[in-house]
Design goal:
The structure holds two protein chains of two kinds. By secondary structure, chain A is mostly helical. Chain A is 72% helix and 0% strand. In chain A, helix 10 packs across helix 11 (201-229). Chain A is globular. Chain B is an all-alpha fold. In chain B, 74% of the residues lie in helices and 0% in strands. In chain B, helix 4 crosses helix 15 (257-277). The longest helix of chain B has 32 residues, at 83-114. Chain B is globular and about 75 Å long. Chain B starts with a helix and ends with a helix. Classes of the chains: A mainly alpha, B mainly alpha. The interface between A and B is large, with 105 and 109 residues.
């Protein structure tokens, strides 16, 4: 295609017009900040601080000797792993929605999609109310079957599970839509061939549907892990704040970053957290891409 | 493309012929989906009911299902928080960022897909690299730049970095790459220049891509909490995302849920209405970008 355009004589100056504005913005707001963050992570920088000293690896050494970072690491991993549960749930619902002759797909899709278009702050208020230990509806319903739930968001044992549940509930709609699009692209002939061979619905699902859907499943799980590693909103809105019960069990890398940078005003140390997070994300994504050879089938 | 189309036609009437076995199967599918939908929708129903309860009613054990007595909490709730102003702020931020992204990403995406120049692939890789990096890594310097520009605690300060999106450039580039080159060649032979071809031939055809970009831009900017939280201090400049979270943390201890939820109810309406009106575009946009990612 490039050769063709060249023959027809497109001046490369057009590229300046078309890409230039975006490139300028990307440089000012992304490339320069990335380099600056890298530099800041070796300094004692603070927000608008003038006394910036180069301290080498001190920020990193301090971070790794600091138990809060390890807590954040652990919690971030727990959150991301648990949030992957959205994939099997969304797959089941998408497969059901893809049932031949099913009416009312639009209605179901809308209902499952509602949390996606709701502000996280609104979601947080509703769930905080439902999770309330004294008069929350969750405990009242559990009470009917004899379970006495505590205060879900301040109990160290339950806070992370409670937050992940909300995260999965919010992410379900997007994943259903992506997976349903993937399912609808699977030719009917593959499924019919399986039926002719006498495969039952479960067998067909695992030996035909899952392999054919695997590119979409791969995409949704990579996105879910990245989103999980960067989760901030729900942690900030539902997790404990520093010093309150549940904080140690719900602080994540990004919420720790926010606290160190803008509450403690130590942007140098926060920059180091950001870089650690980036390496963490790159490593996990690379791992997923490596593993995909084992289970993802591209046509 | 094909996925976008099939999802749009998903609601086409089903074939009439049906065997009794498949009838039973359909019924069980419906039941499972309804149970799931109840879990999805219950929090909203509970929000709606609680917004009309008295404070006492909201803390009752066993719970009040139907408000008794009904309470009209909106005047008190609105006295605490300027939802109108916050909605306006949210709309300004969302519309400005989304429009900026549409213009800049569509142009850059077209440039990467169709204009040959030296180092094009390397530059595109550099755009892609930004997608790999968590956004928090840019935050502190972005904050400093907005500060140096004197835009802290202002809506333009919130909007400015949001005008650019590496994801949008990627999405639009993939979209233009998938379009046949013949269309442009015909226009070029007619003597149209690159801008005219882009504006008159390609842009009208790029609608599905632009819709996907707009849906992502709108949802992302509307919901964005961290960036405006950092930039803004004055409550009359808060968008809903920040305002509602500040309110929920402010009265956290008093936990007057009927008031909080009546504000929450109003705050979720603009996006909800937009979604209901533009449902097909939302779904197609998400499905489209899923196929491209």
């Amino acid at each position: 295609m490039a050769a063709k355009s060249k023959r027809l004589g497109v001046s490369p100056w057009w590229a300046v017009l078309f890409i230039g504005p975006a490139l300028l913005g990307m440089t000012v707001f992304y490339y320069y900040p990335a380099i600056r963050t890298f530099w800041l992570s070796f300094t004692t920088a603070s927000v608008f601080g003038t006394d910036v000293k180069f301290v080498g690896l001190d920020n990193y050494l301090e971070l790794f000797s600091n138990s809060e970072l390890w807590l954040a690491f652990r919690n971030t991993l727990i959150y991301s792993s648990l949030s992957l549960l959205v994939i099997p749930l969304a797959t089941i619902i998408a497969v059901l929605l893809n049932t031949k002759g099913l009416k009312g797909i639009g209605v179901y899709r809308t209902l499952y999609f509602l949390p996606v278009v709701t502000l996280p702050a609104v979601v947080a208020i509703v769930w905080r109310y439902m999770y309330n230990g004294d008069f929350g509806i969750l405990n009242q319903v559990l009470g009917l079957v004899g379970i006495h739930g505590g205060s879900w968001l301040t109990n160290p044992h339950t806070v992370m599970f409670a937050i992940v549940t909300v995260g999965i509930w919010m992410a379900l709609g997007t994943n259903i839509v992506i997976l349903l699009a993937g399912l609808q692209a699977i030719p009917d002939t593959s499924l019919e061939a399986a039926k002719m061979d006498g495969a039952g619905p479960i067998r067909t699902f695992f030996s035909i549907t899952v392999p054919l859907l695997s590119p979409s499943l791969f995409l949704t799980s990579v996105l879910a892990v990245i989103a999980g590693l960067q989760m901030f909103d729900l942690i900030y809105l539902l997790g404990g704040s520093a010093g309150t019960p549940g904080y140690d069990e719900s602080v994540t890398l990004v919420s720790l970053f926010y606290k160190v940078a803008f509450a403690d005003n130590r942007t140098g140390a926060a920059a180091a957290i950001g870089l650690v997070l980036m390496l963490f994300i790159l490593a996990l994504t690379a791992f997923q891409f490596r593993m995909q050879k084992k289970w993802v089938h591209y046509e | 493309m094909s996925s976008t189309r099939s999802i749009l036609t998903a609601e086409a009437p089903a074939p009439k012929r049906r065997r009794p076995g498949s009838q039973r199967r359909l019924a069980s599918v419906h039941i499972t989906l309804i149970v799931g939908a109840v879990f999805m929708v219950f929090p909203f129903v509970w929000e709606l009911l609680t917004a009309f309860k008295t404070f006492g009613g909201s803390t009752q054990v066993p719970p009040q299902i139907i408000p008794d007595p009904w309470a009209w909490n909106f005047p008190d709730a609105f006295a605490r928080i300027n939802v109108g102003q916050m909605t306006i702020n949210s709309v300004i931020i969302t519309v400005a960022c989304t429009l900026g992204q549409i213009v800049l990403c569509t142009m850059a995406g077209y440039g990467f897909a169709r204009i040959p120049f030296r180092g094009r692939n390397a530059l595109f890789m550099a755009f892609l690299a930004v997608l790999m990096v968590p956004g928090q890594l840019f935050l502190v310097p972005q904050f400093e730049i907005i500060g140096k520009l004197g835009l802290l605690d202002s809506l333009p300060g919130v909007i400015l970095p949001g005008l650019f999106s590496a994801f949008g450039v990627f999405l639009m580039r993939q979209f233009f790459m998938s379009m046949p080159a013949e269309l442009e060649e015909a226009a070029r032979l007619d003597g149209a220049n690159v801008w005219q071809i882009f504006r008159r031939v390609m842009l009208p055809l790029a609608k599905p891509g632009i819709i996907a970009l707009a849906v992502f831009g709108a949802l992302g900017n509307w919901n964005n909490l961290l960036w405006p939280l950092i930039i803004l201090n004055t409550s009359n400049k808060f968008p809903l995302s920040v305002g509602i979270s500040a309110l929920s943390q402010d009265v956290h201890n008093s936990t007057n849920y009927p008031q909080l939820l009546s504000v929450a109810l109003v705050a979720m309406l603009p996006m909800l209405i937009t979604f209901i009106v533009l449902q097909r575009q939302f779904i197609a946009g998400i499905a489209f970008s899923g196929g491209k990612g």
